[in-house]
Amino acid sequence: QVQLVESGGGLVQPGGSLRLSCAASGFTFSSYFMNWYRQAPGKERELVAHITSAGGITNYPDSVKGRFTISRDNAKNAVYLQMNSLKPEDTAVYYCNARRRGDDYWGQGTQVTVSS
To answer: What pairing do the DSSP bridges indicate for beta strands 110-114 and 10-12?
Structure first.
């Protein structure tokens, strides 16, 4: 069955860094666009990073551009999110998402808390 398992979340001080990982299984990972979303309490889920199937194109919203970097390793069926210069407003549950045409798969999320 399809599985997306996130890891790497935790508590970090403002200005710090975290690297999230997402391990995929049960589908042809290299054929899917991959995304990281986040959802803070009381807010809608928002896209924070996107990468194409071969990894050649990435996109970010202005809120994280220059601080977050998405990457993937199709040989390991994994996608990563490097988060630098973290701010308190980055606090949220971060979700890994795989998408291709009618398929839309989600992980269970990992909590990231940025606080001093």
So the answer is: parallel
Kindly state the tokens that stand for 113.
């808390």
Model pLDDT for residues 54-76, shown as the tens digit of each residue: 888 999 999 999 999 999 999 99
CA torsion angle 20 22 23 26 (round to 10): 180
CA-to-CA distance for 47 and 7, rounded, in angstroms?
A: 18
Average pLDDT, the chain: 97
